[in-house]
Amino acid sequence: MGTMSGALPLSGFGSRVAAKSKVEYENTPEGALVRRAQAGEEPAFREIVERYQSKVFSIIHGIVRQRNDVEDIAQQVFAKVYLSLKSFDFRSSLITWIYKITVNECFDYLRKRKVRKLVYESDLSEDEVRRVENSEPNVDRQAPVDTTLARRDYMVKLLSRVSEEERMLLVLKEVEGYSVEELAEQTGMNENTIKVKLFRARQKLVKAAQRLERAPGLVAG
Amino acid sequence: MHAVVMEDLEGYLSGTLEPAVQRDIEAHLHACSACREEVNGMREISQLFDSLRPVETPDQSWDPSPGFYAGVLRQIDAQSSKPATNSLFGWNLAFGRRLVFASLLTLAVLGGYLATHEPESQGMPSPEAILAQQESPSFDAVPAHDNMLVTLTAYEQR
C-alpha cells in the first residue's frame, strides 16, 4: 500500500489522500474541502461527515462494541471535528485527525460509562465513585463472560496508560494495518520518529500489563 | 532492547520483514534473553489488538440513521453553548496555572523586598537622635524627660 505519487489506496477509507507534505495536502481536493469547511461553509462540513461517517462508525464499534451507542458517539465525534476544525493544520491527513478524535471519544465514553454504572448502582456521588474505582482491586465485579469483550476491556485499560498520540499510532498500526511508512505519510512525522514513538508506547503497554498482573486496581481504566 | 531488534521491531511484529532480516533478529533473540522477553511481551499485547477490530458480518451496515446529521448539528449547538470554565476570558487550564504561579512568584519577590527594605519613618527621629537629647543643655528640664519618653514610646508603637 502507498505509492510515491501520493495517492494512498487505504482500505476502508473514503478518499485517497496525498499526505506527503503539508503544502501538497492543502492543494488536494480534500485540502480544498477542509479549507471551505474551516471558512464556515456548511455543505463542505456535511460532505466531510458523509465521507467519513461509515469509517467512524466502524472504529467506534470496534472499540465500544455497543451498537446502540455508536451513533451517539459518532455525533459527538463530528461535533468535535466541527468545533476544532479551525485548529486542523494539514500536518496530518484529515482522516488521521478524525481517527484520533474518534479513539479519544471512545475512551472517554468507556470511562464515563463505568463511572455512571457505579453511580446508578450505589448511593455514591461521581467523585466518590472515582475514588473507589481507583482504590478497589476489582471494581467490575461482573466481568464480561465473552472473551473478546474481556480482551477488549483489558486493551482499553492498557491503552489508557499511553498518550493520545501513542494510542492513535498503535491503533492505526495494529487495527488498521498501517505500515510505518504509511503512518509517516499520514501523520507528517518521519519514519524514525514513528518507530521511536511506537517502541515507547509498546514499552508502556508491557509495563502496564505487568502492573495489572501484580495489582489489578492500579491500572485505572 | 538492542538496536538490531529495535530498528525492525514493527516489521518483526507484523511479520513483514525480508527473510534475511527476520533470521538475523531471531538469531539475536535466541541469544539475548532480555530482548527475547521484551519482544515476547510486546507480541502478546500486539495480538490482543484483534479485540478492537469491528466484527464484520455479511448484513453489517455502517450507514447512519436518517436523522444522524441533524443529531450532529444538535451536538454542535449543545457543545457550543456549554459554559465551559476554560472559556472564561479565553483562558485554558495551562494558562491559568501559569498565571497563578506567576502571581505567587511576584508576591514572594515583593514580600521579600518589603521585608528587607523597611521604609524609614517620616518626621520621626531615630532612637540615637532621641537618646542624644540627654546631651543637650535643656535635657534636665522635666518636660524634656517627658517628651523623650513620649517620643520613644511613639517610636516603639510605630
Concise summary:
The complex is a heterodimer of chains A (221) and B (158). Chain A is built from ten helices and no strands.
Task: Walk me through the structure.
The complex is a heterodimer of chains A (221) and B (158). By secondary structure, chain A is mainly alpha-helical. Chain A is 68% helix and 0% strand. The two termini of chain A are 34 Å apart. The model of chain A is unreliable at 1-19 and 135-143 (pLDDT under 50). With 158 residues, chain B is mostly helical. Chain B contains 8 helices and no strands. Chain B is elongated. The chains are: A mainly alpha (221), B mainly alpha (158). Chain A binds chain B through residues 46, 49-50, 53-55, 57-59, 61-63, 71-72, 74-76, 78-80, 82-83, 148-149, 151-152, 154-155, 158, 170-171, 173-175, 179-180, 195, 198-199, 202-203, 205-206, 209-210, and chain B through 1, 6-7, 9-11, 14, 16, 38, 41-42, 44-46, 48-55, 62-65, 68-69, 71-72, 74-76, 78-80.
Q: Using the alpha-carbon principal axes, give the shape of chain B.
A: elongated
Output mean pLDDT of chain A: 80
Name the beta content range of chain B.
Answer: under 5%
Determine the CATH superfamily of chain A. RNA polymerase sigma factor, region 2, helix turn helix motif
**Strands of chain A, count:** 0
String of helices and strands of chain A? HHHHHHHHHH
Subunit arrangement of the protein: heterodimer
Radius of gyration of chain A equals: 19 Å
Give the CATH class of chain A: Mainly Alpha
Give the ordered list of helices and strands of chain B: HHHHHHHH
Give me the CATH architecture of chain A, please.
Answer: Orthogonal Bundle
The biggest chain-chain interface is: A-B, 45 and 36 residues
Radius of gyration of chain B: 40 Å
| Count of individual helical segments of chain B | 8
Major beta sheet summary of chain A? none
Outline of chain A = globular
From the helix content, strand content and strand pairing of chain B, which structural class follows?
mainly alpha
Structural class of chain A: mainly alpha
